[in-house]
Amino acid sequence: MVGQVVLAEISRHDWDGMTCGCERSADHVPRDFLAALGGAPPERVGEDWADNHVYIQSNLMMPAVATASMVTAALADPLVPLMWRRSLIQVLSALCFGEQDDVAEACQEIVRGCKWSLYEEIGSGRMIDAASYAFELLTAFPEERERLGFFQERYRANLGQDLHSENFDVRRTDW
Questions:
Q1: Cα dihedral across residues 173, 162, 112, 155: positive or negative
Q2: What percent of the chain has pLDDT over 90?
Q3: Backbone region of residue 97 per phi and psi (left: phi > 0; alpha: psi in -120 to 50; beta: other values)
Q4: Alpha carbon distance 65, 71 (integer Å)
Q5: Residue 51 has what DSSP assignment?
Q6: Which candidate, 5, 139, 166, places its Cα nearest to that of 71?
Q7: Distance between CA 85 and CA 130 in Å, rounded?
């Protein structure tokens, strides 16, 4: 079950007018996404709704930007089960770091608009994996270095050890 914000965001996009990675209309992507949210996240990130539909390995497909919007809306939705947060953030990472720079940049702009959902994940202490993926995704935004460094120190216990400041200096300028 999802809230009205997710459904409204889905309705904003012409899914029928986009070709999916499976070479069909992308209209099945939001339906498959909503159906997937009714169960446990699959072992393979995005399986059955994003992987091989919205992205194929690191290649972004036509519905990538619309999917980034849908997923960021789901991150903000309190009705989306918490167990999905890690998987949703991983899908956003795949979209933001894909090979097609123009599409990846458009996805990054969408994610930039939900940065507080990612910071909330880091600060929540719910799941180290989800917080670590949120942290890594925020490294895509150089303007966030100072704030991210602060969160890295303040919420150290919520992050994987590889993201502790002695192992990864977020304030460096060469990443």
A1: negative
A2: 93
A3: alpha
A4: 10
A5: B
A6: 5
A7: 6
pTM: 0.94
- pLDDT(95) > 80: yes
Backbone angles phi, psi at 55, to 5 degrees: -145, 145
Q: Are strands 59-60 and 55-56 parallel, antiparallel or unpaired?
A: antiparallel
Determine the average pLDDT of the residues in 163-170. 91
Q: What is the DSSP string of 89-154?
A: HHHHHHHHT-S-HHHHHHHHHHHHTTHHHHHHHHHH-S-HHHHHHHHHHHTT-GGGHHHHHHHHHH
Predicted confidence (pLDDT) per residue in 98-113, tens digit: 999 999 999 999 999 9
Mean pLDDT over 48-71 rounds to 96
Secondary structure (3-state) at 63: coil
